[in-house]
UniProtKB/TrEMBL annotation, chain A:
It is found in: Cell envelope. It comes from Paenibacillus darwinianus. Its main location: other. GO terms for biological process: cytochrome complex assembly. GO terms for cellular component: cell envelope. Keywords: Cytochrome c-type biogenesis, Disulfide bond, Redox-active center, Signal-anchor, Transmembrane. It holds the Pfam family AhpC-TSA. This is Thiol-disulfide oxidoreductase. Transmembrane segments: none annotated. Residues 36-174 form the Thioredoxin domain. One of its GO terms (molecular function) is antioxidant activity.
UniProtKB/TrEMBL annotation, chain B:
The chain crosses the membrane at residues 68-86, 124-146, 217-239, 478-496. The keyword Transmembrane applies. Residues 66-526 form the ResB-like domain. This is Cytochrome C biogenesis protein ResB. It is found in: Membrane.
Length: 175, 550
């Protein structure tokens, strides 16, 4: 083998090692289990809304989003729902959307629960905890703040005060 | 620095050559000694040995070093042992408590978790070590196998005197008669001992089992396939190790797949007391548990919208170590829970004033009807709680998603009641009825009506729950292939050895040298036996030139 040929083989092998090794190491560093992280994109979903329509995440492309995971069994989730409603009224004129994904509860539970509130923002229904798992939600409530360019600005775990919600939505519009 | 690498025989060797590639004359420092020769890789230079290394050459020669490879392996071994101190996160069915290690093992546990040793084998530095070992395997092998192949493929028959006399097995004597004729007879003697002989007048080279030299490299190819296969598990869809609980009669999704599994029936046999040793008598010990399972695939509406359309793929009676297996998906029996859960009740509505009973009606916990007609009365379901509790403001709410404390709020209409009805709260479990004071909640209505289940026949329970372990490992065939190739390589290297004998006769003086990579005892035996055929009786031990361990 001539010198230049040998060099090409060496470089090819080193690049191969760099790519494979980089992929393997990078996977351990940057994505814990494929769930979305701050700075990443929220996974696409296709969920039923309360009016029976099918809503996709991509339908809301280009708009600032608040994606909230909630359940009737989770008191802080319930507590922040009227606060989200007030924030929705305040910001919807500017293009804000709130998508509140229920944690795979059954029809009766969700329907009856919602009768207690007067919510205008989009309530979506998960099934078999699929969306919840795709988003890596482990504690409730968990709220994703998504910038208009589709990038996750913040993942907030736990209940929020209205001021805290307002502050974060203001941030979304600043971008 | 300029270095003359041309041998006296006229062959141009590369930098780093220890023994001339052509005549075998010791070169450089090796020429100064009288000890047996360093025969590793037949004295040829490693590919990476260069006069003026650039940055790529430096990286290359770093990984080409066996010393570095040994260090990498030692470091990986040490790191692996760290991972065995406490259980790894992955060994829990569902690890979510970051304080677990501290709570269970105290401060060492806290440090263990903080250092990330609770997931040693998934950590970047451990994977990094494996990647480096893989790189070292490829580069070490490539750097040695190609020059060695070339060296062994074009061996010169007539070797330099010093090359022959400095082998670890040597013999020299004066012979009478025609040297050419002697060499020819010696060739025959060696052939009978299984050597392949190349003769050049009064010189010869006899060789056997050269293939065993490729053993280590074949082993390395197998290891590289093995490592790549393990790496391939991170490709989406290639690897899954998950647990799922399925109640008898239920069909649930295998998380992360389009498959659904149905628990058609679950049975468990326990050991009888007569089958158990005294100390275990009276305890429930499972002898055999079995899930009659059916596997389905979702063909439409597989997301969270609409009813999923399922097609049956296969059925299997799963017992321990006999999984349901379909197209790479394996479902193993893992555990079971015999505690029954309330599925439905068949209560009657009692008019406490008249003592009249209406019903019974079937009330499913998970899937109740919105409306029930009971004689002159009607029950309209306002809401249902799966796990009832009152929040801090006294508002009824759910404690969890599980049906642990079901509660139903009805609107009762009928004779003697207001036209828009009255609300009545019903707890199917007697325990909950008392705990949450059903009669207090229903106030005056509690004196007029009650909803009761007459007997145990009125209560339906769910069947036992079977816990199954779902595994997909598409890398497994490649792991087996890699392991098999590795085994073939090891076998070649372990059970055969490469033996060579060089001989030349100059002016009636015979010089003979022999080399093998192991089993020098056998090597000396071969030489002595061949010489015996030539009527030269010698003790095999006397052939030893020193420097051997065997």
């Amino acid at each position: 083998m001539t010198g230049s040929k040998r060099k090409i083989v060496q470089i090819a092998i080193l690049i191969g090692v760099l790519l494979l090794g980089g992929y393997a190491i990078g996977k351990t560093l940057f994505s814990s289990d494929g769930t979305p992280q701050v700075g990443g994109k929220p996974p696409e979903f296709e969920l039923a809304a309360m009016d029976g329509s099918v809503q996709k995440l991509s339908d809301y492309k280009g708009r600032p989003l608040v994606i909230n995971f909630w359940g009737t069994f989770c008191p802080p989730c319930v507590k922040e729902m009227p606060e989200f409603q007030r924030q929705y009224v305040k910001w919807k004129g500017e293009g804000l959307e709130i998508l509140a994904i229920n944690l795979s509860e059954d029809d009766i539970t969700v329907t009856n629960f919602l009768k207690r509130f007067n919510l205008d923002y989009q309530i979506l229904r998960d099934r078999d905890r699929q969306t919840e798992k795709a988003y890596g939600v482990r504690q409730y409530p968990t709220t994703f703040f998504v910038k208009p360019n589709g990038e996750i600005k913040e993942i907030f775990i736990g209940g929020m005060t209205e001021a805290a919600i307002d502050e974060r939505i203001t941030e979304l519009f600043r971008n | 620095m300029f270095q003359n690498t041309k041998c006296e025989c006229g062959h141009q060797n590369s930098v780093g050559t220890v023994l001339c590639e052509s005549c075998g004359k010791p070169l450089g420092e090796e020429a100064l000694s009288d000890l047996p020769l360093e025969m590793r890789y037949d004295g040829v230079a490693r590919r990476s040995q260069k006069a003026n290394p650039g940055p790529i050459d430096r990286i290359w020669s770093f990984f080409s070093s066996v010393k570095i490879a040994v260090w990498l392996i030692v470091l990986t071994l040490l790191a692996s042992t760290l991972g065995t101190i406490y259980p790894q996160e992955g060994s829990f069915v569902n690890f979510s408590d970051p304080t677990y290690y501290e709570k269970t093992y105290g401060l060492p546990g806290k440090i263990y978790y903080a250092l990330g040793l609770s997931h040693t084998y998934e950590s970047w530095w451990f994977i990094g070590l494996l990647v480096m070992i893989g790189t070292s395997l490829v580069i070490c092998s490539l750097d040695r196998v190609l020059p060695l192949y070339r060296a062994l493929n074009k061996q010169q028959i007539r070797k330099h005197d010093r090359f022959i006399s400095r082998q670890k097995v040597v013999y020299a004597t004066r012979i009478d008669g025609d040297p050419e004729e002697w060499t020819q007879r010696f060739e025959g003697a060696l052939q009978r001992r299984g050597f392949r002989v190349h003769r050049d007048g009064t010189a010869l080279l006899a060789e056997k089992n050269r293939f065993s030299r490729w053993g280590p490299y074949i082993n390395h190819i197998g290891l590289i396939i093995f490592l790549l296969a393990v790496l391939a598990r991170s490709i989406p869809g290639w690897y899954l190790d998950d647990y799922v609980g399925v109640t008898e009669g239920d069909t649930v999704r295998l998380q992360g797949t389009n498959y659904f599994i149905k628990n058609v029936a679950f049975t468990v046999d326990f050991y009888t007391d007569s089958e158990m040793p005294d100390r275990l008598k009276g305890t429930a010990r499972a002898k055999k548990y079995e899930t009659k399972a059916e596997l389905y695939q979702c063909t439409a509406n597989c997301g969270a919208v609409g009813e999923p359309q399922l097609t049956k793929l296969t059925a299997h009676d799963i017992i321990v170590n006999d999984p349901l297996s379909y197209n790479g998906v394996k479902v193993y029996q893992f555990d079971f829970n015999m505690t029954p859960k309330l599925k439905a009740v068949n209560p009657v509505l009692i008019d406490k004033v008249t003592g009249e009973k209406y019903g019974p009606f079937r009330l499913s916990i998970a899937d109740p009807e919105p409306f029930y007609e009971l004689g002159p009365y009607s029950l309209e379901l306002i809401t249902r709680f799966m796990d009832f509790k009152l929040d801090e403001n006294g508002v009824p709410t759910n404690n969890s998603r599980e049906p642990d404390a079901p509660a139903f709020l009805f609107l009762i209409k009928g004779p003697g009641l207001p036209a828009d009805g009255e609300t009545f709260m019903y707890f199917p479990k007697q325990k909950d009825k008392q705990r949450f004071s059903q009669d207090m909640i229903n106030r005056a209505l509690a004196d007029r009506f009650d909803i009761v289940v007459g007997s145990m026949e009125g209560v339906e329970f769910t069947g036992p729950e079977s816990f199954l372990n779902v595994r997909i490992d598409r890398a497994m065939p490649f792991i087996w292939i890699g392991a098999a190739i590795s085994m073939i390589g090891l076998t070649l290297g372990f059970y055969w050895n490469h033996r060579r004998i060089w001989m030349r006769i100059d002016d009636g003086v015979l010089s003979l040298g022999a080399h093998t990579n192991k089993n020098w005892y056998g090597m000396r035996g071969d030489v002595a036996a061949a010489l015996r055929k030539m009527s030269i009786e010698i003790d095999p031990k006397s052939l030893d030139n020193g420097g051997n361990k065997t």
